[in-house]
Amino acid sequence: MSGRTPEAGLPFKSVSGKWQVNTITPTLRNTVTDADGDKVNLTFEVWTANADGTPGSKVKLTDANPYGVLVSPYVNSGAKAEVKVAAGRLKNNTTYMFHTNAYDGSLYETTWSPWATFTVRAGIDLTLPARDDTSPNPNQTIQEPSSNPEKPLVVNTSSLSAQPDSDSGGGKEQCGPVSKDGGQVCFGKPVPADKGPKMPSTLAPTESGGAAGVADWCEDDLTLVRATRTLVCENRKVPAYYRKDGQVQATAWFLFQRLISLDGVNSFSETLTVKPISIPADFYRIQLGIYQHLCEDGCDPVEADPSAWKGAPDWTAGDTHIAYITSGYLWDDSTADKQYTFKPDVQINGIIDPVGEETIQTIGYQWSLGGVSDFDEVRCDTKAQSTKAGCVIPAYAPTYTFNAGKNPQAAAHAWLIQQATPKTPGVQSAGTPLYYLPGGRDGKNRAVICDEDGWARNNHDPAAMNSSTDTPDCDEFTFNATYNSGGMPANLGGLNPVSSGSKCIQSYATKVDGKIHLRNLPGALTTFKEVCGRSAMSGSQNRGSMGAFSAGFVNNMRLMDKDAYWLETNITGSCTSANSDAWRCTMTLK
Q1: Of residues 342, 361, 359, the one with CA closest to residue 351
Q2: Cβ contacts of residue 289 below 8 Å, gap of 6+?
Q3: d(CA 567, CA 565)
Q4: d(CA 85, CA 111)
Q5: Beta 41-49 vs 55-58: how paired, if at all?
Q6: Where are any strands of DSSP class E within 306-344?
Q7: C-alpha distance from residue 25 to each of 20, 28, 61, 307 (Å)
Q8: pLDDT (tens digit, 9 = 90+) per residue, 219-234?
Q9: What residues form DSSP beta bridges with 531?
Q10: In this structure, what DSSP letter does residue 432 have?
Q11: Model confidence at 152: pLDDT above 50
C-alpha cells in the first residue's frame, strides 16, 4: 500500500468494530457497503486509547507494513472483511481504538469511519476429541464412598443468603456406676487409628466384619465415617478402662464398626461389628450385647435375637475373635408424598469383670454419645417422583457423570466453567457442590441465561452440528435446575445471580480444519471472573449429556429440592495457556 492522499470514497454499512480472539492470532472485522457495486476491501488502523477516549498512538500491527495498517482482501458489498493481527502486537486487558476506510483498488475513502473502542480480552480455544457415537453411558448407580458430608442447602430468605448446614461433633466418655469398693469401668472417647495399640496382626484376611461383601471399603479399619447414598459405615477405636478410686488400672481396646444399609423399600438394617484389638490379663472376661435401638416416630426398631450374633460377643484376655449382629428398622410408608428424617441409634450393654475386683462391672455405650456426624441422618420418602418408597443418606452428595465420548461439546463447556471460573461449580475436590432445584423454576432460570431470541441459532456454526438434522442449543452451565444457576434470583436462594446470559462466559462450538473447537463468542468479553457460562452448540449433544439425569439419576439417588451433588465431566485438558488471559487446551477423555 502506498502513501497516496485519500480521494473520493465509499459509505459504510457498519462502523462499529467487533473484536474476537478465536485463534492464537486475533482478528478484526467490519462490514462494508459499496455504493457503486464494485468489490471493495477495508483498511484497518489500530491506535492506543487515551483516558479521555481519544486515540493515542498508532499500533504497528505487522513487521512488514511500516504504516501500521492492515488491508483486507476484496469482499462483496455487505460482506464482512477481516484481517488477522500478528500475535503479541496487542496486549490483553488493554483498551484500543480502531477505524476503517474503504478501498477498491483505485479510490480511497476521504473520511475514516468513527473510532470504535475495543478491549482485548482473554481467548478460549478448546480442541475437542472426535465424537464417538458408540461410547457407552456411564453407570450412574456406582457411587464412591466419601468421608466429607455435603448436607442439603439451607436457604435463609430473610437475609437473602444461602449456606450449607453442619452439625458434626465429637464424643464423650461413657462410664458405669462406681462399685462399693471404688471400682468403675468406662468407654472412652474414640481415638484416631494411630493412638493406642495397633490392630492385631493375627487376624486372617477372611476374618471380616459385617461390612464384608456390602461395604468392603469399610473393612480397612480406618477410624472415620464414610458413606454412599445408601450406605453409611463408621469405625471407632474405643478404649474400655477400669478405674480404682479414680485411677486407671487397666485398658482394653476395641474397634466398633457400625454399618447402616438402606437396602429395603420401607426398611433398613444395621450391622454392629466388634473387633477386639487388645484385652490384657487385667480383665478376666468382657461381654457385650445390644441393649436396645432407638429411632424417631414413624420408625420402629426390629431387635434381633441374641442368637443372631455371628461369633460370640464374649472375650477373655488375649482373645481377638470378631463378632457381629444385624438388626433392622421399619418405617411407615403408608402415606403418599411424605418425607421423614430419622437418626437411628443403638445402645450397647457391657459386663466387664476385672481381675481382683469383687464386683462385676456394668457399662452402657450409646452410639450417638460417642460422636455425631451429618452422615447419621437417614431420609425416607414416598414422594411421587419416585416409583417406590425408599431411603437415602442426604448428606452424601452423589456424582452425575457425563458421557463425554458421545457429547464432548457439552462436557468441554462444563469443564471450562468448572476449571476457569472462581466458583468451580460441581467440583468435588474443591468442595463446591451443585444444589438441585427441581424444574429450574419451570424454565425461568434458563430464560435468563439463554434469553435472547434465537441466541444459539444466531451464534452457532452449522459445521459443528452432529448431522444435517441436528439443531443448535444454548447450553447453560451451571444447569438451570440448580440453585447455582446464574438465572436463579438471590431472594429465592440463588447463589450466583446475573441479569442475563451476556454476563456469563459466552462460547460456541466451531469446526476448524476438520476438528471441533470450543471458542469464545466473537465480540464477547471474557474475564474468567464470570459465575456462569452459555454456549451455542449441538442440540443433540447438549440434550444427550443430560439424558440420564432426570429419569435415572434423580430417581435413583432420590434427589430432592436443595440436595447437593457433583458433576464429573469425564474430560480433561492439556493446556498451553490456562490463566486469566486465556484458556487454550487440547481435550482428552478420562
Answers
A1: 361
A2: 306, 313, 348, 349, 350
A3: 7
A4: 23
A5: antiparallel
A6: 314-315, 323-331, 339-342
A7: 10, 10, 11, 78
A8: 998 999 999 999 999 9
A9: none
A10: B
A11: yes
